[in-house]
Design brief:
Keywords: Lyase
Number of helices: 9
Order of helices and strands: HEEHEEEHHHHEHEEEHH
Number of strands: 9
Strand content: 15-25%
Bound molecules: 2-acetamido-2-deoxy-beta-D-glucopyranose
Enzyme class: lyase
EC number: 4.6.1.19
CATH class: Alpha Beta
Protein name: Ribonuclease T(2) protein
Shape: globular
Number of domains: 1
CATH architecture: Alpha-Beta Complex
Helix content: 25-40%
Distance between the termini: 35 Å
Structural class: alpha+beta
Largest sheet: 7 strands, mixed
Amino acid sequence: MAAKSRSKTISLLALFIGILCLYFPVKTTAAVAKSDAAADLLYLTLVWPGTFCYSGQCCMPTTAEAYPPANDFLIEEMKTMDQTGKIIQDCNETCRFSINVGPMPSLIPDLYSTWCNLTCPCNNGLPNWKNTWCTYGQCSQLNQTDFFIAVFNMTTKANLLNVFQDNNIVPSSSASYKLKEINTALANNNLSAHVECATKTDGASLLSKISFCISADGLSFINCPFDIKQTCNSELWFYPFNINQLDTECDYDFVGSGGLIKMPTLKHLAM
Ligand SMILES: *[C@@H]1O[C@H](CO)[C@@H](O)[C@H](O)[C@H]1NC(C)=O
Ligand SMILES: *[C@@H]1O[C@H](CO)[C@@H](O)[C@H](O)[C@H]1NC(C)=O
Ligand SMILES: *[C@@H]1O[C@H](CO)[C@@H](O)[C@H](O)[C@H]1NC(C)=O
Ligand SMILES: *[C@@H]1O[C@H](CO)[C@@H](O)[C@H](O)[C@H]1NC(C)=O
Ligand SMILES: *[C@@H]1O[C@H](CO)[C@@H](O)[C@H](O)[C@H]1NC(C)=O
């Protein structure tokens, strides 16, 4: 009960911070000429939490009690790129990010469960959303709302776990898969994607990230006009994810015991 209301407090706090953001525009130092920066496409990257947690420490989001992380591919970011795969970023030295504009509040449950950030220390994901919008989103032709809607709509459209399941590719710690099977499953669903792997100390490949090229208007998948470095062996593992893998050490208790100073967000938001 108490924990529940604490997590409510955290959610409200996140909202409050969102409101604060509206009034404190952020300056970024990197200056890329916005005049000649033209983003031709969007590049959505989804990450498999089973591999993320297997490969290193992963932490329970601070909002997990109300909105647990989905047992699914999670959103990492959506970048802006040109035709050659060059990243276009930092197009506006002023950045306003607000969780309150338009339909953004209705996206909050999705943000917390599928665009959570499992890095440590435990965080509420907001620094990553904000960073994605400020660094890349501002170089897109979309406004903040449409940018975020595009991220979710295209993630839903990709429906990766289902695509894999239909092709008998399911998370497993006992069976490995051929990279070719993975690529075929994606191609069968008209998904032009880049598959990335993490490498275990014994050299084995773990399915780590899948990225999609998306039209600049955020509405459709397109064939990626560039390749990326191959990081997967011809055989790879797709380990299961279980929420119990997340480290809860820094979860919740700091609110009661030390006030809000340890909340990572305030500091990050001031960047
Ligand atoms: C830069 O961002 C600010 C704040 O969101 C906005 O008012 C301004 O119009 C933007 N400038 C350009 C050139 O897009
Ligand atoms: C978590 O957020 C940090 C910065 O806010 C970002 O660099 C990192 O890529 C994110 N990780 C994931 C897995 O989303
Ligand atoms: C964002 O752009 C869409 C049209 O592309 C418009 O309908 C919507 O009102 C805009 N939202 C905001 C918050 O400016
Ligand atoms: C995004 O998905 C929602 C819900 O399925 C839908 O109502 C909306 O039209 C979609 N928007 C875009 C821009 O694709
Ligand atoms: C893929 O695209 C082809 C050609 O446009 C179409 O016939 C097929 O139905 C699509 N498959 C899926 C799974 O959407």
